[in-house]
Design goal:
single chain; about 60 residues; mainly alpha; 3 helices
């Protein structure tokens, strides 16, 4: 998701997005540990997206 799209979301939507991404990351890490992971690059993509959302949340909190 692009940063501009994330900036248009509310804080609650961003918090929910982080939770869903963390759940997906947890599932992928479990698959990695059991040797059934098909797309290992997806783990780093999710981590980067979580960091991007946290950065935008921080920007919003400082802007007030």
């Amino acid at each position: 998701m692009k940063p501009q799209d994330l900036r248009n979301m509310t804080k609650q939507e961003l918090d929910h997005k982080i939770l869903t991404l963390k759940e997906e990351l947890s599932k992928l890490l479990f698959q990695k540990n059991t040797g059934r992971l098909e797309k290992p690059a997806r783990i780093s993509q999710i981590k980067k997206e979580i960091a991007r959302i946290k950065t935008i949340l921080r920007e919003v909190s400082y802007a007030k």
